[in-house]
Amino acid sequence: MESILVLTHADDSGVALSKGSLEAVTAGKELAAKLGAQLAIGVVAKDASAAAGVLASAGAKLLGVSGEAFAQARYATDAAACEAIAKAAAATIVLAPGSSRFTRVMAGVASRVGGTIDTHVTALGGADKVEASRWYYRQRIEAVLTRAGRPWFLLLDAGTHAAFAGAAGAATVEAISVDAASRTTVTGFKTPELDAQTIRPDAKMLFVAGAGWTKKQPDGAVHVADAGKLILGFLKNTSASLGSSKSLVDQGSEGNSVLPFLTHMNQIGQTGATPRHPKGLATCCHGEEPHVVGWRFIGDRRAVSLDPNCGWTRGKADVVYIADAFAVMTKVNELLAARS
Amino acid sequence: MANALQIVVCAGIVPDPLQTLEPVTNPTGPGIKNEMVLPAVLDPWAASALYEAANLATKNPGSKLWLVSLGPKAKLQQVMMTVAQKVAFELVPVDGPLGGFPDAHSTAAALASAIEAIPGIDKTKVLLFGGWESASRGAGVTLQLVGEKLGIVDQFQGVDQIDVRDDGSFEVLERVEGGRHQVSVCAGAPAVLGWATGSLAEPRNNPQIGMANMRTIMPALQKAKAVTLDANGLSYVSAKLPSQQRETRVVKDMTPDAIAAELVEWIVAE
Question: How much is the ipTM here?
């Protein structure tokens, strides 16, 4: 008989659970209902009782670790907190959000309680046993796996389940005491200026800029400054998130002319992210990485490219426009500005 | 030499990202068709870790850098012919299976054993580097598990920068959600740093470094300990290429203005 624990943590506000945590709660409730298993939910936060208010109607036993040390994401304290909750719950299946906070610690926690772990889980299935779907080789191969050993920790990718939205109330949380000793101090965050932040995980659209923006144009010259204005103009008009191909990002570290607002953080594919957005528009991109790996979880995909024979867009994009992205995006920005 | 560091970089080898991969079923589980003959490279994230480690070692005279890698000896030798020309290191090879499908816990155990067996290493002074994920399994757990097995409880993932201070403490920038970095200060080694891309470009090939490295790499490869990786209860139901293939509409005969108009309608549609 399986028993299920969902580990959650507070968001940046410290008084509410993160969206990923609420998605994991939904996954836990669904799995518990399917298996007829008992469900427990663990909360790691500065004030676990306050953060757990939304779980009052979840129909689960609530366990919490609270304290100033748990307001911040840090390996030593988060691992100790999750270890203590996991031991108290003694569950056979442990679900948790694949957030940066829990991705940092959960393998260590699994190791401490004698369990195993799989991450980037995109679906939970199986008829008479739990099966997890995840991708290998940078989103090129999809596998379904299962494990005989318990406890089995599963980190769920963001966006794979709906966020739990129960009626808020006074939740009864069993407090668990944890030693919060650590040699690490979190001193803050480095965040780009508000108008310079081009990575927007919740945006409806991902705009992908390829290396073609910095290549010679039909007049024989490069127009990096113009490309920058067009791209930033589009982001301003649409509030889209900006992704880029590896080749474009790498040009910066190789001393070539680049778009100054691009960093490795913007990169999708190969050594970059595989973000989730409902729509994606790729411009001046060529190659497998942006179109296959970076776009795996993009819903509706369009591309503007000068290369009618780019095999990577065929079968990957819904629409490919064979055109000069400078000309197209200039007009797109004009039309969007007129609408606003 | 107050800050002479002991840096261990764990790095796997993966198929060149430009190769087309096809899953096959082997007696031991899923694998990649012709994986042994596909061109291989050092895992891209782990390569970033290696370059950052070498840079750190150069800045801190007296430091020592080991590269621990698990894979078939022949494949390791092939990849090292290139990697060895980049930066100076001492290779600690572990002769084991290739690929992303073997269990990460067994892989971590083999790597931890290899690290513990390095002559002269002091686990209390180790900075354990690696990629925050691999380009094969992509789980981001192996390095963390190695750290746990070595008793290291200061761990950082998605690292883009480390600044070591005179007193041995260091500041770390880790990637977190929303395009931000979390800034932390750690009292000092031992620590685990799973690197994202860092900020260094790939070093140019330096034949002199290559020759110096190869003097120790070839004997190390000959003596590499062979390991088998236990499945650890892991079994695969399936491993396949995604079946989704989109019907791409290729538009060749529209003016930029017409394309822009169509795009804007698409962009603003809910």
Answer: 0.94
